[in-house]
Amino acid sequence: MAKKITIDPVTRIEGHLRIDCEVDNGKITNAWSSGQMWRGIEIILKGRDPRDAWAYAQRICGVCTTVHAMASVRAVEDALKMEIPLNAQFIRNLVIGAHGIHDHIVHFYHLCALDWVDIVSATKADVAATAALGQKLSNWTGNSPQAIKATQDRLKKFIGSGQLGIFASGYWGHPAMKLSPEVNLLAATHYLQALDYQRKINTVVAILGSKTPHIQNLAVGGVTNPINPNSPANLTVEKLFHIKTLIDEVGTFIKEAMLTDVAAIGAFYADWTKYGAGVLNYLSVPDMPMDTKGTVFALPGGYIPGGDISKFVPITSQREKSLYDGIKESIKHAWYNGNWDRSPYEEETVPNYTGFDYDKKYTWVKAPTYLGQPAQVGPLPNVVAMYLSGHEATKKYVDLTLKNVSALAGTTVGIDALHSTIGRIAARVIRCGVLYENMNVQWQALIDNIGKGDLDTFNAPVFPKGEQRGTGFHEAPRGTLSHWIVIENGKIKNYQAVVPSTWNAGPRNGEDALGPYEASLVGNPIADPELPLEVLRTVHSFDPCLACAIHLVDGKKTPISKVKVL
Question: Active-site positions?
């Protein structure tokens, strides 16, 4: 007889997410994804100056701050049909790349890895054997016996005190955990080292953005970074070379530790290539503009219907008609007034909480569709699109990762393995490597352009009378993000954000098709319904951010943590 499992809230994510599953004979047969907060930013922005929108919009989330700022200024610039100085594009791109790498490192090590790595088991590992394993896998200097022993000693101290601290509430000893004590210890060592490297790359965001989170250097029309090679108060060559040093240091960690770790975990958990595929309509947009008009991009995008790579459609512009006309949102199963499918330009945001009902409305998250179908967004769709586009760095890191997984697993693993829970995690790490490569491109392009004597970073916007509409697209760390603005006589008339976690965490749409989280859970195994680790593995593989998908806490729903079996 089927049981219902409720995980509320899902932890190690941003925001408040509830997952309900039906489990029968050790497998999930149905699922519901429910966002337990409401976003009111759209209402807050009405009537305001469009030049201020980005500063408000990035407060949607304390993790995804940079991405909302970028999408917001691009929306206004699209409405006004503006050109952006080259230096501003490159500076923005460096911030985008640094933020993306930071986000991917934090997700892989600090939010996701603990679903696969048993921290308690690591205390039983042989330090010498662990160091030998690490040195066999790569040349990472952090694999020394001294570094590994220091990690094990810290873990033993945590456990011996009876307070696991950051490692509390894990499913240690769960039957689905497969790694040996030595592999667990190696991963735990890199977990702690990653704390330093995510800080290093986030320093790049702080240098260029003036602070992080919530950068301060953006403006509609460019950036506020004045470039003066001779003034220490401005963006100087010395600061740019310090940024390059940070990029190189983090790049070494990505190549020698992170990519090796994801290959090892993928090999040991190869059975998870059979689970978690879900919605196979893949959507991603091009990003990292390399010209003033935003028509040439360093990173390509595309659409793949039904996972059929033979039907791949490249998306080469952020202003393609299919993006403007093809994206709609449904509120059939969301707590808003009405039952409609509309373009974000025409949407209303009128909350109407009616209680949780599996068959009717059960979430604050809307259900986006592209060309009438649900779509998965994120590093997996993005990496596959870039690979099929022939993007050199993507092909390099995909092929390298699959080669390493195959060697460790003792069997050939192809690109089809990416359509899975573990593949989604691997794609995020691969994208981290791609962003590192691209940051070098952006840095050199900025240096070269300054060397030509071009110091411009801003074009002033002009707001004509009447109505203008614009959309700002951005391929954010969690996937395709778009902000939609309607301007009337210089003021915001309507504003909507269709964010990655709205695409992925969305409920059933107007045609009752399951959203990506929901579809990805169906068919997953459950070893112990009281300890539903497998649910968390698949949900965490998307890197949920419910603060983005919805905003403001429902004060009547404030549990600290709960796993309920019905």
Answer: 14, 61, 64, 68, 478, 501, 545, 548
